[in-house]
């Protein structure tokens, strides 16, 4: 018969269950279908179709775990700019590897979707150059916040592009384990409802 000490040792040796992107996507989509989750609520959200592609999500797990650092679609500079923007708009995005996940999804998307994304990223760079004569990566945190305040204002020249990129970022973030946990999800139980995004402007 095992003693309490034996049980504690056995428990310490056990490895935690790995949560896959496929598992997270199924949970997220179930929450959307039940109407208890707001991120990606639009049927036209650019990430929804990718969250139904189990093979692609399995590849994403392997690719992001390898951390090779080589982008699959974006250039190295574009990936860095996207990473900086993602972290500024949704803190925690860098830890969730949102930029690399978006890059992977774009590599599997249509030319039209890729072109639209690049146009929005280029527009953000143009707004940065116009306001501060510097690229997004070169901005100070204060300047970056100023840029985001400018382009997130309805009616501004960069508003459409800001929202387009934010949709991708929010989808990538909230389909990650970090993002799902922020919404109230835990791997050991299912919530009947989710508290929603805690970021100031919702990001959804």
Order of helices and strands: HHHHHHHHH
Tally of helical segments: 9
In one word, what is the shape? globular
Whole-number count of domains: 1
- Total strands: the figure is 0
- β content, as a range? under 5%
Structural class: mainly alpha
Q: What's the average pLDDT?
A: 80
- What radius of gyration results from the CA coordinates? 19 Å
Which runs of at least 5 residues are low in confidence (pLDDT < 50)?
Answer: 1-16, 191-198, 200-204
Distance between the termini: 53 Å
Helix amount, in percent? 55-70%
Largest beta-sheet details: none
Could you write a compact summary of the structure shown?
Helix content is 56%, strand content 0%. The protein is mainly alpha-helical.
What would you note in describing this structure?
By secondary structure, this protein is an all-alpha fold. It has one domain. Helices cover 56% and strands 0% of the residues. Helix 6 packs across helix 7 (141-151) and helix 6 crosses helix 8. The longest helix is centred in the middle third of the chain and has 22 residues, at 111-132. Mean pLDDT is 80; it is low at 1-16, 191-198 and 200-204.
């Amino acid at each position: 018969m095992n003693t309490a000490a034996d049980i504690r040792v056995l428990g310490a040796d056990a490895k935690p269950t790995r949560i896959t992107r496929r598992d997270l996507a199924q949970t997220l989509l179930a929450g959307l279908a039940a109407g208890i989750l707001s991120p990606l609520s639009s049927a036209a959200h650019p990430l929804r179709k990718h969250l139904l592609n189990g093979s692609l999500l399995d590849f994403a797990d392997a690719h992001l775990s390898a951390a090779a650092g080589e982008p699959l679609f974006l250039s190295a500079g574009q990936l860095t700019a996207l990473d900086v923007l993602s972290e500024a708009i949704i803190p925690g995005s860098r830890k969730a590897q949102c930029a690399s996940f978006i890059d992977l999804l774009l590599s599997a998307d249509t030319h039209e979707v890729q072109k639209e994304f690049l146009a929005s990223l280029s527009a953000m760079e143009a707004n940065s150059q116009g306001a501060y004569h510097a690229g997004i990566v070169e901005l100070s945190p204060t300047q970056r916040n100023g840029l985001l305040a400018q382009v997130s204002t309805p009616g501004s020249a960069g508003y459409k592009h800001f929202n387009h990129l934010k949709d991708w970022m929010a989808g990538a973030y909230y389909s990650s384990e970090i993002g799902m946990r922020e919404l109230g999800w835990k791997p050991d139980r299912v919530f009947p409802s989710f508290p929603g995004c805690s970021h100031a402007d919702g990001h959804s």
